[in-house]
Structures
1.
Amino acid sequence: MSTPTSDILIIGGGVAGLTLALEVADRLSVTLVRPALDDQGASRWAQGGIAAVLSPDDDLEAHVRDTLIAGDGLCDEEAVRHTVNNGPAAIQWLIDNGVPFTPDPDPAARYPYHLTREGGHNARRIIHADDATGRAVVDTLLSKVSAHPNIKQRSDLTILNLLSDDAGQCIGARGIDIRQRYQTLLAQHIVLATGGSSGLYRHTTTPSPSSGEGMIMAAELGATLMNLEFQQFHPTCLFDPDGPAFLISEAVRGEGGHLLNEAGLRFMPDIDPRAELAPRDVVARAIDAQIQQSTLGHVWLDIQHIGEAAIRGHFPTILAHCATRGIDIIRQPIPVVPAAHYSCGGVATDYKGATNVPNLYAIGETACTGLHGANRMASNSLLECLVYARSCAHHLLMQPKAPPSGNNIAPAQPKANAVDVDTETLTTLRNAMREVMSHHVSIVRSNQSLNAAQAKLSDIEEKLNEFLGNTYGYTEGTHTHPESMRLQQSLKLAQLTVLAALGRHESRGLHYSTDWPAQQAQATVSELSLHHLTPRTMA
């Protein structure tokens, strides 16, 4: 078993992880663990763009104000201002690195790149690369990461857990390679950029979403998890039960798309004066209510009226993808449903990305910085990835390099289990977990549904432990196979999410409870750790 050492170990290769790697690699050695398949993770699938104050007709205070309103009283204003103030420099860094943002064809434009508008924003401030911004950013940054001599990429590993020393400092991570051998990676600083927890749900906006494994890895070392109950459901995911997940960008509504009910009538103007451009929680609940009243199982998103030239110019990726699914968006409306999209909660961090565990950092969707509050505003997610990755990098570059020490030796690890796992059983249990979360812990919640979710998740965990015991002689504290371990981690996060929702006796932002429809006068964050799980629910 090898124990390679680097200054920085980054787990996750989306926009946040790639940005951090590039920002520190000229002076520090970096090991970057990222999926072998580039279509995994949420960054690549981000369509709409990145919000920042770029036009001379916009201003920073307006972006701050819009973000605070969307966050429904739960944003950390200092985190909002830090993000918004550093946004323009982060975008310029991407431009300097060659990201091919869409230019504005108008010779009289006040900013050289096209800016669109999305829900919650009162100005055009979304810079984009057509309707595939995430892919353009990831491809550009990845090409530079691959060419950098000080960045070692590991795409052959599945990280299973983090490692700490006797003083409680994070010193590295343990993973398993494609040959089923355990590997230990040690570093002076460890950064989680592993994504959110949308994969806890059945219907998502990305094909291979994370299920919060990184969050639980941090919690296992004592990190605090915050605001887990605020799971954002994107209002418009393509409705096709037999096909893969596909997001219909917020920008479609930003450019004038109308939501229509079963009768073909617009319904958003009667619900909110911002109509289709209301914040996502408002739009998602409105769509969910229409679906409950109809027989279609979806609503329609219609952009025929904006014209073929505008559709082809702004939404070539959506146009092409829908065509492969038999939908011509130039001549017919798009069937859409809400789907799990973004986790506003995660590992609690400061503006440097630091957690309460020494030497452990979290950036991107894995982290909860306070920026999003109770509801993330459109296109603030990639902005957060960039700003906090750069802040974290600046902090890490200021730290003294630790000399090689014999104290940073990871404990001995067992050999990987050579027995083939029954993946069908694990898949069945994971799907059962997703059904429970989708049915009971979704857009609209109640005490009854959350208590039912709590009981059903415990039953699933008992079945998993029984399966592991019968198959491997499983006992508490041992791990037999990476997929079973990742499922255990996901179940823990699902249970903590339910606990967080049960503890919030109000409706705020993304958390709407029929038992607590009003807001509490005092807005409070929720903080949880693994200690909040009962012995029965602990693996």
2.
Amino acid sequence: MFAKVLVANRGEIAIRVMRTLEEMGIASVAVYSEIDRDALHVQRADEAYLLGPAVAAESYLKIPKIIEVAKESGAEAIHPGYGFLAENADFARACDEAGIVFIGPPASAIDAMGSKTKARELMQAAGVPIVPGTTEAVATYEDAVRIANDEIGFPVAVKAASGGGGKGFRVALTEDKLKDAFEGASREGEKFFSDGTVYLERYLPDPRHVEVQVLADRHGNVIHLGERDCSVQRRHQKLIEESPAPAVDEAMRARIGKIGVDAARAVDYVGAGTIEGMLQDGEYFFLEMNTRVQVEHCVTEMTTGIDIVREGILAAAGEPLTVTQDDVVLRGHAIECRINAEDASKNFAPAPGAIGGYKEPSGPGVRVDSGVGPGGVVSPMYDPMVAKLIVWDKDRASATRRMLRALGEYEIGDLKTLIPFHTALLATDQWANAETCRDLVEDKDWLKALAFPAPAAPSDDDAEEKVEQAYTVEVSGRRFDVTVIGPPPVGGVVVGAGAAGANGAGPKKRGERKKGAGGGADELLSPLQGNMWKVLVEQGQTVEEGQLLCIIEAMKMENEITAHKAGVIETLSVKEGEPIQSGAPIAVIKAPAAAEE
């Protein structure tokens, strides 16, 4: 068994892995970016090493540096967690070449399942049912139009071949929407996975998203741990997960479990992985395989009593699985709510920032996997997850009541999260009836009712307020405590001398802003902090209400900003590639008559 393992990740999953390492008597090594130097996963580990700047490409995605740290620390293996390099075949190969064990599947399995087109072709050859569509990349928009019309029909889903986690997934309900979907999926694939190729699938309008947890070792043992239902999603990214799936009976469980085992065997899989699929009208279709531990693995752990992370570590070390298929019994019901720093009332806009008071729920059947604490910061540099709240009880109705109790106990000060959304949705008849709740999640009027109370309006003097803040800095690997006196943080990011918003002028004082920032007002303000990825209009252009104006990238998500009214763009205050703060002006749109005056 390993004596020391490096965890190549951050936040709650890094802490989750470290807990199991501690129980197994294995020393843990953390890595961190400059912005994460005081993060809880750094404090939790036995050792911690700086990787580089906050930008993931220069820290958590920097393969040579992570390998270097592993060698320097004496780590014999690397656990990638999920996200970042978890499904990167080049990283797995780099570990092998360096004589370091990659805790996950072989690079060949990642390659096979990493490309969705290759995976679909492989699964089809193995007799696994797939969603009807292409098994090869679609090269051009013109090809997409032909295939959609002649072979698949509308609505059609356009997916990045290397995508995942909701990235690179667009839907065209009709042919006139296909061009935007094709280009959007390709753009996201290139941005997040350096692969702009896409393929087409039949779009299933209201399926249940059901996935199967599998475990495999190097001795030929492959088992499944039952299924999870992850149907409650926004923008094809999961919000609530549960196990077992309410629409799956014993016969269907055995059927999709076999599909999961067959899929894993087809690629000589090792470790923990997940077969994702769509269930509709009694038919189950293979969707993709995630060659890593899933965010929602916790609900399966709660219903089976099996430590999935531990089994993955044992498999990587060459040990056999500690359980057989006959040992797997699902007991009770588990639900997980992703507590993200997002504002559901603003179409789930990311809401990064500093955390004030913080108190996690507890009591019977309650588990919290978190990566933050009091005074922590949810940075716009990474995903918006604060924590995962998981509960278990004897059945689904009891687990729902327990989750509502736990949500009520959760205290997160000074940060907007999805707690109000989860509380509202779990209290609906749709949830009680085990529906997908898709119409609720997409109902903007229902979401707007979940708006947070407006903060007290600051006075002009507040803009001149100075605060004293303590920081830890590193110089040549040595830490120093320093104190900085300056403006208070804006949206979780300290604005110092020379810093500015997207318009180059920095945050405005209250008196400098135009009145009526909503409901028919002329000025459109940014609902979130992020980076201006794309600007699709020009000053002087006439736009319709609801027309797409720009796309803001924040916390690994693209957020489309539309016109709040029809009119002429009198002022356009943003530029592509520049940062933008929450509340900063995007544009001034005036009705045509007003614009002429």
3.
Amino acid sequence: MPADIASLRSCFQSHGFLFVTNQNLPNVLVVNDDPGSLIGLVGLLSQWQQELNFQVFSARSGEEALRHVLMHEFAVILLDVNMPSMSGFETAEAIHSRKASASTPIIFVTAYSADEMNRLKGYEQGAVDYLFTPIIPEILKAKVGVFVALARNKLELKLQAKVLDKKTRALTAINQRLEAEIDKREIAEQKNRTTEEFLAMLGHELRNPLSAISSAATLLSMDGVNHAQSTKARQIILRQSGQLTRIVDDLLDLSRVMSGRITLAKRPLDFSKLVHACLETLVFSGRTRDYQISIHTDIVFVDADPTRMEQVITNLLDNAIKYTPSGGEIDIELRSTNEDVTLSVRDSGIGMSADLLPRVFDVFVQGERTLDRPQGGLGIGLSLVRQLVTMHGGSVEARSDGIGRGSTLFIRLPQIYHQAEAPEAMPESESPDTYRILIIEDNVDGRDIMSMRLSSLGHVVITAGDGPSGIELAAKEKPDVILLDIGLPTMDGYSVAKALRANPATCHMRLIALTGYGLEEDRIRSIEAGFDLHLVKPVDHERLLKAITASPAKAAQFL
């Protein structure tokens, strides 16, 4: 018996009595070596094909029957017992030894009356029945009809299974799409909730200092206010203005860092000195007066951007104050550990739960907020810390023993070995006490308050509300310093600066950009336009005075 499928297919096509096949109809195979008997059985079955809805195959030997079985499934096989070379019993054994055809029903056809032993042998080979010639057509039709009906039901079940499988795959695909849409919707809803919570938090954080500023300003305008009250009101305005500035700066800086729009200006930095300076600023502001602060620092140097490191340290200290009740302890330690520098800020505050610890440096994540908590925040300070520390090649970590047991925040930075330089002696006076200052600013309130601030210090102040009138006044009044806003109507500050630098009468004047645009590209554009310095609003009093009174080179070092 050939094993090669291609040769079997060729042999299959070379024999007669083969009808056009339909895979959706049950098949009946007639096997008989006698041509007359084979033609008679096939012809008899052909009469019932349309009625019983099946198709007939024929074979003249056991070998040919096996080739058919390899290629098709059969509802029933009518198998002659007495065939040369390969008997019906041998053929039946071969058919049922194959897994795919092991359950195929076989009816033995014989002209001899089978004794009990032959019947038993046939049943052992898987026969389901015997037919004796001459065959009675009604009996043949009844027997074949039973197996054809069973095979048709089996085919229908297969077709239904295919349809169900196809529908299942389609439903699975639809379900997967729906799940994906649900996931997207949940993510979108979570983003919306986060945005709404953030906006609500932002509104709360902005209203608090604005309310304090408004109340203090109202107090100053009232009659009968004594000196102590007016001093307190001014302090409140300064303190709350600083809070507003920190909120805006944190928002802008986080956006710049996450979009890769910040360029670090690294230099060897005495980290211990910077930590002490940041703490002194908080002490001066009065924010630490209700806490027990301890600080221990090694003298260590890092390669870092001083401004960005100041943000990192201030945010760590601010976080400790924010989440520690009055009377609590805050311990600051700066240590040299092998090749690294480790800054830790430990507090005795509300602590953190185990599920919050891995997320504390994520954006907009905060500890539990209570209505009576005096300090607020947007949940971006620690995220900004992580981003900036990572940009410096460092790492961050948070630890806590649980709610109510305080927490510790760590930052680690690569240590460098640098010889501290002696501070350069500054001359006692390098500039006159007063200046002629031109302010070019379109915002009336901002222009007026800046004019009053500088006039109270003895400076001669001239103001202009737009670029063209500012250029005209600069040529006429010959100011020493020009404070120039960038966002001016009709003619922006860059164009005004270029025009002033192009005029021999005004090209020597000191130009200071005083603007709300604080991106790195804004600073670069200012320098390219001819500005000496770029200050971002609001500018605190000391920084403004340094910008005005020091030489451009010295002022750039201080700012």
4.
Amino acid sequence: MRSLAWLFMLAGIAATKSLVSQQPLAAPPRPNVIFILTDDQDAHLNSLDYMPHVKKHLLNKGTHYRSHYCTTSVCCPSRVTLWTGKLAHNTNVTDVNPPYGGPKQRISQVHITRVQRELPSCVAAGSAVNTYYTGKLFNVHTVDNYNAPFPAGFTGHDFLLDPFAYDYLNSTFQRDREPPRSYEGEYSTDVLAQKAYRLLDEAVAAQKPFFLTVAPIAPHCNVFMNGTGLDDNPVFSFSAPIPAKRHEHLFPDIQVPRTPSFNPEYPSGANWIKTLKRQNNTNVEYNDQFYRTRLRALQAVDELVDGIFTRLHQYNLLENTYIVYSSDNGYHIGQHRLQPGKSCGYEEDINVPLIVGGPGIAENASTDIVTTHTDLAPTFLQLLDIPLRDDFDGDPIPLTPGQIEAAQDERQEHVTVEYWGFAAGEGIYDFDLSAYNNTYKALRIKGKGYNLYYSVWCNNEHELYDMTSDPHQLHNLLSTDTTDIEPTPHIILNNPLSKVVPRIDSLLFVLKSCKGQVCIKPWRALHPGGDVTTLKDALHARYDNFYEVEQTTQVRFEECARGYLLKAEGPQFDVHDENGGNGFVRDGLAWDTWV
């Protein structure tokens, strides 16, 4: 069997050909995991509806986690969180460019070494599991620094490199210890597919459990880069995604879903978002075309998914392989009058696809239990039977029907959302410069009888949306604009906002600087006795004095900073760890002073 698998690998079998029949491979002691990670794919613009192979292989055969969230809605911070199981305030990778980006773009070699030391812990287990990766890893992983140092933790890799990572027709990849190779004129996702199939063949030939990540750039916009984020004056030109030639004709009349938040007649939101002008017809037509190109660009990803499942079937590995499909962050086009992009805390940007299929996973199922990107690294380790790290900010995701059922009462109800700095528009219509102050802390919380989004911006504006009655986040319950005030007091869980807001602000106060188990069970930091585990518990009248009188410190910022600077972050929640040390208050102005 080993020699037969080896022959298949050497043959370089094309994506459209079928493998000849073969003897089933012996099941390894651990299962395999394949992680497909798209770039900027939405959960609220219906993109999954246009991916028939994802529907056939994953949605129909797996479990769809409809309440899965990223915690920082831009690629590098989100991807570092995903691989380390830690929130961005615990990695200090908070941007895509220096001085706050990561990890390749960080100037500090200490930081590069730290992140790369943590990365393999989330995807490898020494010699027990082989690990493979192809596609986008991080921004500013370039043709000049790809080997300084090589990313750690992989048996085999074939990475996209800047400044060509987002150029659909001019990509550059770098394989293992080889020099970079340009694929000018070839379609990036098709090149990636062949690399993914080769790595899968290699993984099978090795006859060991494997973890394979496949990370296409679609449906991210096309970016021409004259330089990289490491250069003094790089020039980036953003345009709509480019589909493969065979898909250019598809979806000619499709439009961005006309939900109530799409280009609304009246402004919504807070901070700079509330100042945006309504888009004119020309702008809307451009954004509809932008949307169509995103759907077209995803078709090659859909074919890639089909190719992976075809090979798993032919290798007789479907019964022993978990397939996880997700995206680094969500996306908006026109919601709240926003131009195409991400970086906001609204539902379109933070709620992202997550679908899991494999042995023991319920078929054609969906769930609304709350999960986040901090939970993916623990989930991967658990699937691979690798001990979890003590410092994860997330928990393994319930996968089986029994686990999901138990999670209805036991699972965390909250998502920590945080962002620092610039929010970039990616179409031909740019944001104004007020988007530089796109720094905020936010809380997404969902439980029985409540579904809320709460945020504090760096200018200390507050937002609160009851997403049961206002799912499109059009009416800020904490707006100071008299035209927004409801004629009757708003009630949540039979309580007025005057009781609800102090509870959720205290919860966010804990989460904005939490570490480890405190991020997973933040109510315990406020109620060490364990008698409060949900917002509903905290709203009991016996805690009114604690929240409305004793808790005088609220979430606030001292200034709007582009990165995680403690002098700008305002007061930090103070809790002592079991060794008597201070668990959260740090004595420095920036992460690099205390790493």
